[in-house]
Amino acid sequence: MLHPVGPLPAAVYWRRRLLVLALLVAVLGGGSWLGVALLTGSEGAASAAGTSEAASSSSAEPPALDRVVPSLAGVLTPTPPPTAAPAEPAAPAAPAAPVQEAGAPCSDDVVALEVRTPGTVAAGSAPTFELVVTNTAAVPCTRVLDAQLQEMVLLDAAGARVWGSNDCQPETSADTRTLAPGEQVVFPLTWSGLTSEPSCTVPRVAVAPGQYVLRARLDAKTSPDAVLAIV
Fold first, then answer.
1. Please, where are the H alpha helices in the chain?
2. N or C: which end of the chain has fewer CB within 10 A?
């Protein structure tokens, strides 16, 4: 091998050997490079595919915080039930009319009392007051109207008693009447204009000018107050 044999010069055979060797090296080198290139490309593609899949998986999955704490949009807020409008209070029922048996004694519920005054009187004068008794029932009834059951009292602005009709000259009578529906009975009384007290032992003097009220009574039934001005 090292000593070529042939008709041609030895240099020719050496050159041919070198050329074959160079071709062989080139073929081996190219094959090696091609294998490395193929291997590197496969790994790069696999890496890229893995990266793409990881990116897709990462984008598809919610962030770690969202997996732990739900978003506000995903939290269902309970809807409060509709509140009903407050019902309007029912109008108060009218009080039932008192029941009165026809011909029976008039109860206090069907008897109306009113005291009438002149409104304004002069100090020391003797005005006349009136006690008015009315049957407000729809049927006739009887009522005891004895004088000893009637009384008028005069009160000052502080509510102190100034005069009473039964203090010094009490009257008595037997007066039972049948009152028709709506019938009124009027009892006039003249006042001396002087003060008095129930025992009638205190000296009586003229009532001083001022604002007063007059109140009447029939047994246990009382009337609304009536204003009386003394000037």
1. 10-60, 64-68
2. N
Closest CA to 111 of 131, 81, 89: 131
Distance CA 161, CA 58 (A): 100
Amino acid at 188: P
Condensed to tens digits (0 to 9), the pLDDT of residues 62-115 reads: 555 455 555 555 555 666 666 666 677 777 766 677 788 999 999 999 999 999
Distance CA(171)–CA(191), nearest Å, equals 14
Tokens of 35: 């294998």
Answering whether pTM is above 0.90, one says no
Q: How big is the CA angle at 47 (ends 42 and 52), to the nearest 5 degrees?
A: 125
Exposure class string for 114-124: b at 16+ Cβ within 10 A, else e: ebbbeeebeee
Find out whether 130 and 118 touch, Cβ atoms under 8 Å: no
Cα–Cα separations (whole angstroms), residue 72 to 21, 36, 66, 213: 76, 54, 10, 75
